[in-house]
């Protein structure tokens, strides 16, 4: 059975999906810098998230074709984690839209910067898929793990410090805690995308050995 010519190959869809997520992260960075005029940025982030949803749906259709159908469970999980990245960015913008903060918390900006670094590093390996080298994918996964741990530390230190001496109102503190939590969870999605890609690469190399 050959791939359906009406649909784009999975690797093309995933590259476009992650590139879209990186652009969405850059738009969220601009939103943090323009909280006094947020609506255009929030609308653009939502548009990118909806485009990501369409790419995800198309990717799920592509999974029915060989060679992806031979490893459909792992590849489905990989697609889900990639989709979770842009969902986390859009959910962050949605919370900002609801509570309209006057200024961005520096720690939220730090975690967003980490997400952009993680996504850029992951994009290098996604562009190589399905011809990834195991050593390079492992290096990518280890680098993303360090960034994920850094973001986790920032989030938990922020929570501890603001419980002791916060200059924010209680409502603002709760809202920023939610935002930092969403961003921290997005770093988890980046890391787990790399974990799944490493597992998929191992499978491909085992298959090639036979």
From TrEMBL:
Cited Gene3D superfamilies: Phosphate transport system protein phou homolog 2, domain 2 (1.20.58.220)
Domain of life: Bacteria
Short name of any one Pfam family annotated for the protein: PhoU_div
Family: Belongs to the UPF0111 family.
Protein name, as recorded: DUF47 family protein
Source organism (scientific name): Methylomagnum ishizawai
